[in-house]
Amino acid sequence: MQVSSRFTIAIHIFSCIKTFEGEYKITSDFLSSSIQVNPVIIRKLLGQLKEAGLIEVKRGSGGASLAKEPGEITLLDVFNAVESLDGGKLFHFHENPNPDCPVGRSIHPVLDGRLEQIQRAMEKEMQSITLEDIFNDTNKYLEQTSHS
Amino acid sequence: MQVSSRFTIAIHIFSCIKTFEGEYKITSDFLSSSIQVNPVIIRKLLGQLKEAGLIEVKRGSGGASLAKEPGEITLLDVFNAVESLDGGKLFHFHENPNPDCPVGRSIHPVLDGRLEQIQRAMEKEMQSITLEDIFNDTNKYLEQTSHS
DNA sequence: GTTATTGTAACAAGAGGGGTTACAATAACA
DNA sequence: TGTTATTGTAACCCCTCTTGTTACAATAAC
Questions:
Q1: Which helix (H) or strand (E) holds B12?
Q2: B52-65 as b/e, with b when 16 or more CB fall inside 10 Å?
Q3: CA of A34 to nearest chain B CA: how many angstroms apart?
């Protein structure tokens, strides 16, 4: 069980858009060469991000751009756009606990709240980080490493 | 991407041990009838929990029991026992970002800390819940629903 | 020695991740 | 209008993981 690389690739995409907008046309091929992942994979991801209203993609002429301010897009938005959790739930529950057993009968009502509690903790942390934070960190890092 | 049902099944196992210890012998068949999952799956899970030092399993004569106090086993212990994260990392990073691109070069150093931050938030929440909490909730639930 | 049980091996089906080729639809431009 | 670059998708592929299943040797108790 691991979050798929779609998540980090999506953030990489946003960083590229921000860094190279105006300078280059952000096509799936351009992104592919920075991320080093197949352009079709990139296009599918662009589709998911577009559907979530986070970016705009121009068909035919080509090119992706942000649909919102970087400070208004959180890592949770990105996560939810590219990582489809079945029923929105992070934890897969075993389907048929035996209702004739006291434990089987109570396991769902007892655990459901706890699992939500854990999921919310993760989501809250993701929500506290915006793409602006990532962009700032990137700039800082590039400054530090360039003039050394 | 979903946490596998091994996690909730493992917690179900602990609840059964606690509820029926002394009264019944907790075999994989017994657990199977409460959880309604194949006994071999249960045995593999019991193996993982045993290896993590959370339970003891008697070979031949049969039966599982707790190896620690319920208050000393957290949901994080259970999670780590049954859910092997590759390299201990919750997030799978795309392998080969292009080092010749400023974004490709910086994405790892910039993101790694953030991803850890999110993972730690989830782990911290898991660590705050012990099996004792679950057992208490179960008892409360069964009391409430029985005399109504 | 018989019995119940665990620990494992071996296999299978299904889902999902990641990759690839191919091509129709679209938009810009010569 | 024809050409070109690009997106959006379909149709595959292979691999891993999850879950389920049968079978059986090893073990422990009686």
A1: helix B6-20
A2: bebbebeeeeebbe
A3: 5
Closest listed residue to residue B11, CA positions, set B62, B70, B89, B84:
B70
Nearest to B12 among A85, A97, A124 (CB): A97
How many residues are given for chain A? 148
CA of A6 to C1' of C18 (A): 10
| pLDDT, tens digit (0-9, with 9 covering 90-100), for B39-91 | 999 999 999 999 999 999 999 898 999 999 999 999 999 999 999 898 999 99
Q: Residue B99, exposed/middle/buried by CB under 10 A (0-12, 13-18, 19+)?
A: exposed
- DSSP 8-class letter at A110: H
Q: What is the mean pLDDT of residues A124-146?
A: 95
Angle at A56 between CA A55 and CA A59, to 5 degrees: 145
Instruction: Note if the pTM is more than 0.85.
Output: yes
pLDDT number for residue B84: 86
Residue B147 has pLDDT above 80, yes or no: no
Mean pLDDT of A122-135: 98
Tell me the β-bridge partners of B130.
B74
Beta carbons of B118 and A125 less than 8 Å apart: yes
- Which residue type, as a one-letter code, is found at position B74? T
CA distance A47 to A42: 9
pLDDT at position A147 = 66
Q: Which nucleotide is nearest to B84 (CA to C1')?
A: D17
Using DSSP, state whether A68 is helix, strand or coil.
coil
- Contact between residue B93 and residue A5 where contact means Cβ atoms under 8 Å apart: yes
